[in-house]
Amino acid sequence: MKGVKHKILVLSGKGGVGKSTFSAQLAHGLAADDTKQVALLDIDICGPSIPKMMGLEGEQVHQSGSGWSPVYVEENLGVMSVGFLLSSPDDAVIWRGPKKNGLIKQFLRDVDWGEVDYLIVDTPPGTSDEHLSIMQYLGATHIDGAVIITTPQEVALQDVRKEINFCHKVKLPIIGVVENMSGFICPKCKNESEIFPPTTGGAETMCKNLNVSFLGKVPLDPQIGKSCDNGQSFLSEIPESPATSSYKNIIQRIQDYCGLHQSQEK
Amino acid sequence: MNETVHQLERMQELWTTGYLMGFKSSNTSDEFLKEKRAQIMSRGLPKQKPIEGVKQVLVLASGKGGVGKSTTAENLMRPLKNYGIECMSMGFLVEETAPVVWRGLMVMSAIEKLLRQVEWGQLDYLVIDMPPGTGDVQLSVSQNIPIAGAVIVSTPQDIALLDARKGAEMFRKVHVPVLGLVQNMSVFQCPKCKHETHIFGTDGVRDLAKTLGLDVLGDIPLDVNIRKTCDTGQPIVVSQPQSDMAKAYLRIAMEIIRRLPTPPG
């Protein structure tokens, strides 16, 4: 981990709010600057979505003298996931905690990441073995912080509050919260509907109440899901979507946070 | 019940202490885990023991998070209301904002308590809402109690179907019959112009069902009212029983009952 400048964890608490989708776009967004080296580590052992989202389904991991080699999407964007270790993407990984932890340790120790500017860690939903392990193993090194993803509805926010408390308890700085699937614009009449209504004011209000940074909202665009299913970068494929500018603004704020942190460190 | 709460609180305390000690004892706990695991393995696989008083157990799973398992579970339980609805959850035992950050073994222990140390009384159906994934919780539940059937919930997009497929495979491996799939968030109708958009893809679940030789128990569209009523604790099947959404859930419940084996005794 010595060669890794910035480490960002993507968390949520609630499942299905768009962590992996966001991690994938964040990776693409950061790698758009080809002077930066970006790495994406998927520690969702049971449901590894990253290989498919990055268009790397079916790829296998190669072993070299210096360790496991990540699978490269672009020259400056490398990916590692349990998905690459399975003989078929349909194989179910039905493991208990200790075995999952062992694999996460290997990902961190045996993968030859090289010199990396940003390491993004995509996590499974919840607060369980994988989260404890990643904090345990990475805790000794410096983690810039966590980005917490949520949808606007109260049921999701409940889990985010727990996630925020988890971060406080393990002294993990919170870069901020992203509100995903925030409003849907009908492609025909352009009317905006709130499919996941923020009955309690949504993530923005929650962040104000908990004194946590609110990074921004991303609207529901059916093309995001489609790009992910096809393993393409939504930011490159659909640059004109309002969701693209939302993503780009949020990514910029994350970069600013990391940059600020670096100068503070020095 | 109080004993359970006390025990769970104690577990929570122990965890917190462990954290504050900064993982110094992590080596010991790894050893402890290894030993415990070896102990359990040597006893052979856990034997399935039915829950006293419960005739049939139905699990709602998916593999993927956020596809609507809990929402479906809540709305499915209502039609079985004639037999009384009791509800049990970790949510009742901890503070709303307290994270439950436990490793697998502790989770297993908690699940045992939630299943067996709750006075369920005489039940015809126990519906278990599972978390996403194919890990400790799913394995523990499948191995420890006889399950009459599993229902897998998914949204139509490929990413979710990947996980739904893994869920189905897991149930096959532990010999739990999969009654069918539920396609959730299938289509959204603009409230203004009624234009229909398939936000998460079209009919992905139907295609997967065909591939796996399973039935599709039903289709639930994306409707703001389902979200709103769940957030306010009034599942749509109860609060708006005449609505199309409620009827869709009721139809699925009927399909499930049709497919469950004849209950023992």
TrEMBL record, chain A:
First-listed, main subcellular location of the protein, grouped into a coarse class: cytoplasm
Residue ranges occupied by any AAA+ ATPase domain in the UniProt entry: 5-161
One Gene Ontology term from the biological process aspect of the record: iron-sulfur cluster assembly
Keyword Lipoprotein: no
Location of this chain's protein in the cell: Cytoplasm; Nucleus
Pfam families attached to this UniProt entry: ParA (PF10609)
Gene3D superfamilies per UniProt: P-loop containing nucleotide triphosphate hydrolases (3.40.50.300)
Gene Ontology terms, MF aspect: 4 iron, 4 sulfur cluster binding; ATP binding; ATP-dependent FeS chaperone activity; metal ion binding
Role, per record: Component of the cytosolic iron-sulfur (Fe/S) protein assembly (CIA) machinery. Required for maturation of extramitochondrial Fe-S proteins. The NUBP1-NUBP2 heterotetramer forms a Fe-S scaffold complex, mediating the de novo assembly of an Fe-S cluster and its transfer to target apoproteins. Implicated in the regulation of centrosome duplication. Negatively regulates cilium formation and structure.
Protein name: Cytosolic Fe-S cluster assembly factor NUBP1
TrEMBL record, chain B:
Organism: Alligator sinensis (Chinese alligator)
One GO location term (cellular component): mitochondrial matrix
PANTHER family assigned: IRON-SULFUR PROTEIN NUBPL
Gene3D superfamilies found in the cross-reference section: P-loop containing nucleotide triphosphate hydrolases
Name assigned to this protein: Iron-sulfur cluster transfer protein NUBPL
Family stated for the protein in its record: Belongs to the Mrp/NBP35 ATP-binding proteins family.
Entry keyword set: 4Fe-4S, ATP-binding, Iron, Iron-sulfur, Metal-binding, Mitochondrion, Nucleotide-binding, Transit peptide
Gene transcribed to yield this protein: NUBPL
One protein family per Pfam: ParA
GO function term, MF aspect, one: metal ion binding
InterPro entries hit by this protein: Mrp-like_CS, Mrp/NBP35_ATP-bd, NUBPL-like, P-loop_NTPase, YlxH/NBP35
Cofactor needs: [4Fe-4S] cluster
Main location: mitochondrion
Keyword Transferase included in the entry's annotation: no
Gene Ontology terms: biological process: iron-sulfur cluster assembly; mitochondrial respiratory chain complex I assembly
